[in-house]
Design goal:
By secondary structure, the protein is α/β, with parallel strands linked by helices. The chain folds into two domains: 174 residues, Rossmann fold, CATH 3.40.50.2300; 244 residues, 2-Layer Sandwich (Nucleotidyltransferase, domain 5), CATH 3.30.420. The chain is built from 16 helices and 19 strands. Strands 1-14-15-18-13-12-9-10-11-19 form a ten-stranded mixed β-sheet, with helices on both faces. The chain has a four-stranded parallel β-sheet with strand order 5-4-6-7, sandwiched between helices. A three-stranded antiparallel β-sheet has the order 3-2-8. Strand 14 and strand 15 form a beta hairpin.
Length: 506
Amino acid sequence: MKMPNLVYFEEPSVVFGHSQTAKDARDGLTLFGPFQPSFGDVRIGIIGTQRGYDAYLHYAQNVNKPVYTKSAGRPFFPGFHAVFGLQWTSTPTATIIVEESAIYRILKVDNLHERTYQLATLYLDAIKNYTQNEERQVNLWYIVIPKIVWSLCRPKSRSKGATISKVRIQTYAAGQKSLWVDDDTKVRKFMQMYEADSDFHDQLKARILSEKITTPVQIMLEDTLLLRDKNDNALDDDMKAHLLWTQSTSTYYKLGNLPWKLYNVRDGVCYIGLVFKTLQSYQKLSGYACCAAQMFLDSGDGMVFRGNIGPWKGKNEKTYHLDEQASKELIVTALDSYKTKTGILPKELFIHGRTRFTDEEWAGFTMAVKSFNTEINLVGVTINDNDGFRLFKNNHSTKFKYGIMRGLALLVNETNAYLWTKGFIPRTETTNHLEVARPLKICVSRGTCKIDTVLRDVLCLTKLNYNACIYGDGLPVTLRFSDKIGNILTAIKDVNWPARQFKYYI
């Protein structure tokens, strides 16, 4: 192969109903329906204020209606029932009204950690009480919150001193008890508050996971369900269609159905993305982080595994690396789950990370594969998008005035390349970025695989963002949600459910 070399990879297709394919998920869903069809009604439970309930009714009345657009980049939305075959009823299956006075009473709490924890408890208790006492169960909870919750219950929101001193909590954590049981109980309660992250969204999802609640949750702003923007203006038809496409696809996936899957992907391929997140607890340990893995099968379905917490931060304080034993345990867990789900082991296992894998990490990964006594082609791929490299197109000599095409690649050598997952898209007559297109820097850092095969795989994995119904993403799904998943896995001290389907984290 002559190096370096510019090549173009054809846009990957995805599969929809009746085994039909399309390059744009919105085209495929409109013409052929979802890959996994489903029938009946959507059983949604709503938890919110009266305004939140009214906002949900407004959304439910609009989600089944077609929305006509003017832009090719924001395609026509036919309506939820027309696309997915499920009936989104105008009234929810279950309704829990949260009094505004209860919310605002909590929001008056000065300390951010206390405020966020108490508010998350309010909504969590509502779900737990319904699950325990009601026979008619739902298959998705819509938690509808006022905008002020988003403003006051996330990191860097206003906060004043804690109700109990930091010294008292640290003293208790060190094993020094008081003479009064009630005092220790109070301190233990506050420890839970301060060990939890101050982001309402992440903390609530983590606590739902820890409670082993099996119903997925969608946390929404009231204004979003009213189809209004952040300035309280009604969305135009193009943006309304975009929002309805995105929310509908996410809902369908959380209901347990694949909207689409990869087309013509190699059989028996498994992709794992490594996630590292520094601990968000009150008692932070220097250099310690939580490691997790996002696993995606060749079908596109995914799972998340929480690994060990340890001193994974590197000496340069910028990268994270596992030791040999933790590396082995994480991959063994992933392969066990793959075999449980499919009945067989994968033929190829690609591990995606943002930094090069150390010898110790790779030894652990290799030991994990060997422990299954089978041949699995193990490949380590590093992917990052913070390189300063850019490529500009000379538009002076052509009548086609557009920038770099999505799918273009610069092959540097046998193991290194740049891939433009952002760029001009002929189907939508626009780009999927706002700035000069920045490529992904991709390196086959461990194992053996042709670089063009890896690039095609990465481009395919940009089509699996079920949380946003778009033409193609800028990052492969193995890395797209790494920060979000890490935030949830470290939002409370112990998420006691180490493996869950990917739909619970988005």
